[in-house]
Amino acid sequence: QVQLVESGGGLVQAGGSLRLSCSASGRTFSTYVRGWFRQAPGKEREFVAAINWSGGSIEYADFVEGRFTISRDNVKNTVYLQMNSLKPEDTAVYYCAAKRAGSSWGAFWGQGTQVTVSS
Predict the structure, then answer these.
(1) Share of the chain above pLDDT 70, in %
(2) Nearest in space to 4 (alpha carbons), one of 115, 100, 113, 108
(3) How far is residue 53's CA from residue 30's CA, in Å, rounded to a whole number?
(4) Is 20 in contact with 113 (CB distance < 8 Å)?
(5) Measured between alpha carbons, how far is residue 73 from residues 30, 42, 44, 67, 85 in Å?
(6) Which element (helix H / strand E) includes 4?
(7) Which residues neighbour 52 within 8 Å (Cβ) at sequence distance 6 or greater?
(8) Which of 53, 46, 49, 51 is nearest to 68 (CA)?
(9) Cα(107)–Cα(5) distance, rounded to whole angstroms?
(10) Measured between alpha carbons, how far is 94 from 45 in angstroms, rounded to an integer?
């Protein structure tokens, strides 16, 4: 059974930091694009960041503004999202995802981890 499991969410004050992790089991995703999405209450799920298999190609949403860093460890089958300078508007459930290069997101999702940023 393929699983993506997020961890590292929590409650943090504005300006603080969190590091999210997403570990995969059931198959290796070393050749897959790995990504992070988020969904705030009453809003649609939105893209946050993505990284290709080698880490040589990384993409961020505009709202990241240099505050987040995505990285991956293919040996551990894990992707990370380091989030600094958090803002209350970053409050959301954060989901990790995986896809084959050139395909659309949707085949593999984690269950989500809650990030709450207090002002």
Answers:
(1) 100
(2) 108
(3) 6
(4) yes
(5) 8, 33, 29, 20, 24
(6) strand 3-7
(7) 33, 58, 101
(8) 49
(9) 15
(10) 9
* Residues, the chain: 119
Q: Give 8-49 as a 3 state SS string.
A: CCEEEECCCCEEEEEEEECCCCCCCEEEEEEECCCCCCEEEE
Each residue's pLDDT tens digit, 27-76 = 889 999 999 999 999 999 999 999 999 999 999 999 999 999 999 999 99
Burial class (CB in 10 A: 0-12, 13-18, 19+), 70: buried
What is the C-alpha separation between 82 and 71, in angstroms, rounded?
Answer: 8
